[in-house]
Sequence to fold (998 residues):
Amino acid sequence: MRRLIGDILLPRATAVALWAWVAFNLALIAWVGIQSLKESGEVWLNPFALPETPRWDNFSSAWQAAEFSAAAMNSVVLTLFGSVLIVAVSAPAAYVLARSSRRVAGPAVNYFAIGLSIPIQTILVPIVVIKLSVYTFMEDWVTGWWDNRITLLVFQVALSVPFAVFVLTGYMRSLPHEIEEAAEIDGAGPLRAFVQVIMPVARPGLTTVFVLNVMGLWNETLLALLIAPLPEERNLPAALLGLYSSMQYSSDWGGMFAGIVILVYPMIVLYIWLGRRIVDGMTAGISR
Amino acid sequence: MKTYERAFWPFLLPALLVYTLLFVAPSLFGIWVSFTRWSGPGSEMAWRGLDNYVALLHNEVFATAFTNTFVMAIVGGALIFGFTFLSMVVLRQLKGRAFIRAVVFLPMVISIIAIGAAVGFLLNPEGAVNTVLEWSGLDPQPWLGPEMVFRCIVGGLVWSSTGFYVALMMSAADAIPAHVYEDAQLIGATKWEQFRHITLPLTWDVFAVSAVLWVVGSLKIFDIVLAFTTAGTAAAPPIPARTIAVQQFIVVKGAGLPDLGSAAAMGVMTLLVTAVLIVLTRRITRRDRVELS
Amino acid sequence: MRKLTVVLLIGALGLAACGKKNSGESAQQSLSYRSSWGAAEPQAKIIKTIFDDFAKETGTKVDVKFVGRTGNENLNAEMASGQGPDLFDTTTGDIDTLTAQQLIGPMDDLENTQIPGEGKTVKEVLPEPVRRASSGKNGLAYVPHTIISTAVWYNAAEHPGLNPQTWEEFIAFLDESKKAGRTPIGQDGTIAFYNVFWFYSLLVGANGAGSLAELAKDPANWDKPQVLDTAEKVEQLAKGGYFQRDFMATKFPAAQNAWAQGKYDLNINGTWLASEVQPQLAPGFKVASFQMPAGGKRSIEVGTLGWAVNAKGKNVATAKKFLAFALQKKYMEQFSTVALNISSRGDVPAPAHMADVQKAVLEAKETHLSYDYAGADKTWWGDMFLPLNDRLLSGKIDATAFVREGKKRTAQHLATG
Fold:
């Protein structure tokens, strides 16, 4: 009996469920692709049929309606720049916090850990207020212009720092102490020592934090809607939401699915191309 | 003096400043706003004391959003880690495991808005899911109706998030040397027992981190609710489907004067819940580290 | 971080160095507009044309952004803090909020401005009910381009001349449709403010302006017999099985699209319906409508959509100049011919299928504003009344429970509010 359940029934059932799950994911992706080539009426009338004649113009109408080119650019810049900044700010801090024997280091680690438990809800209202005030301040007094995307970037970084510091501190603690000695003998300054000696050794942890943040920032919706909602400022999720909205009011369903394909298929291709490197990178620093 | 002692402040300060000025200080400001009546810059701010909190405690809509958020964190978490553990029982040896791991992770790289738009179509009363149910002789269901929509959202969330935790936990499990399992097989341990007594204890640390990750993430769930319900329309998502983040967004964007004091009070209450849940999670997952000797 | 430091540093230096406010003034006139229309919608295309023409003729630099329904969530807060566009979209239901936030200023000068090339003033081309629906306590609040109203929509090719005059006739049609094996009503039940069309049209249609709004102001108003009577009618709809199966679970706009395909006989909706479902209409479908047979005062809903001037904006005068320009007949006609809606100008005929709605609006003895302005107390409306109405319409509670709950919760709301 024990063998029946533990060795046959449970594993078999799980295996079947896993394959069903895989099949569903693949079917869903294919289904979205098929819908994107249909005429609006067909999407409702025959959800499973192949398109009568492929409507490639759905793609151009979606691309224009959603102003995807600007959004894609924003998403790429905000995501990459943001993730790099997060690592650049957090890694040195995590390093000294992990290593230092100063009395202030322990409380400082806890101070960052508090940030982990502050949900975005707590600072939603302040963020809106700051966003507006910064814009007015910069435009009236300083530069004469301002771009909400900078505000968005700054907040994305600030909100991600506690988690990055938390994970990296734990990771840096696990690194062998001998590594600094090489740097000491070199007589290199702290910054050079950190960049040339510590960072290469800590690469798995840094990669993890970087990849996790790339995924988080790439899908950021709430902050983006609140801080940078205009067509030329918004990122891809916000643009898709906008497209979803206008396609609902104009009943252009083929166009809406074309928009989904434009957004999703490149990510899938990228994922297939980078393959396990994404997943490995993401987990390398946590699972040590 | 060691490098890290010399560089302590220069290295720590940027992170400390960014975090303090742009995260901690706004949080404190948010707490202060929660004691006022205010509709944003350019309007008068009036002290209200605890009134915003009292009003929220009496507000049934907020109560629903609050409960939903809680249920999502706990039930959603149980389902996600349940599936993750089951997958770990078989994924070590199953044929095509690399492929499975890759495909179940896929929803993570796809925008949840896109998923919601497509799945919403499938779940419409006349949609594909009900069509399939009817073909197989089953009753069609009002998936997106007030009774079921929240369950559908939790389902969608579990579906799209589990792959991430499978990836996380499996990469920890991959590090366990094969001979441990071979020994276990020799003494006749079933696959379940191998998971129970080898895989799980040896990946427990990663599970503890994952659990905290989930709890923190689940409390800010926002976009999937919009995507499954009224995304893109001027209508607010139906009350049974709302989370705190959604409710707060509705209050901030407001059809009338935005009530920022109330929205900030919701934020503070979420803060308390998060703290409680994190402490609970840490307590449940706390145990001595198991090492292979 | 370094970027931030630099920015902060520049900021500090800038302050120290000049300590003087940048002036946004430039020699050229400029005008900005932020739209709640999506770029793909016909209204957006019309508005774009008007702005382009205005720019060409006056040499104004225009900045037009079509944001859509999502993305303007912060607009009021932005404008209140002194930012935001010169012109924005608004509707009847928002007037009080905008007035309270002092985002709209006096417009009486505009009312007497001549429309270019027509020799008429703004006031002269906008019919009185239209102006009323666009005015707050300080007079005209914004300039409307579209009239909106609510009606029950059907396919005149299938049911020529359908126009029930009493509740009984209406129910008789529903029963007949059901008996013939059709689905009488398609309803997008996930959109609460479409579900409330039934209760609202029946109550306010029969009892006139204020009869719904007063329910928010005093729990005693729930005791008026007309409230229970209306609730009983809605209950009759809910219990009669006239809606499509699982109508509370639709993915909007599934029901209105299926209606346009001919799957349901009726759909209660706003005058924007025909425009929205245009690509879905079955061949030969003739969109037509009738007023909800509420009886009593036969009050007609008049609401408007239009452009408001941001009172805290930088170019108030230019914005007003634009509004007079935009009201030219050649542009307003397109809201009818291209966008398939009812134009705000009395001398522009509505699309054929809405000629009767336009006539009803312009000739009505009794009119009321969209939703009878009951949404003004948004907590009452969104958190209490709409959900309660959803429960009534979906048959979860009966009319008596609806009135009892409504009264109780209104009292609670007023006590804690």
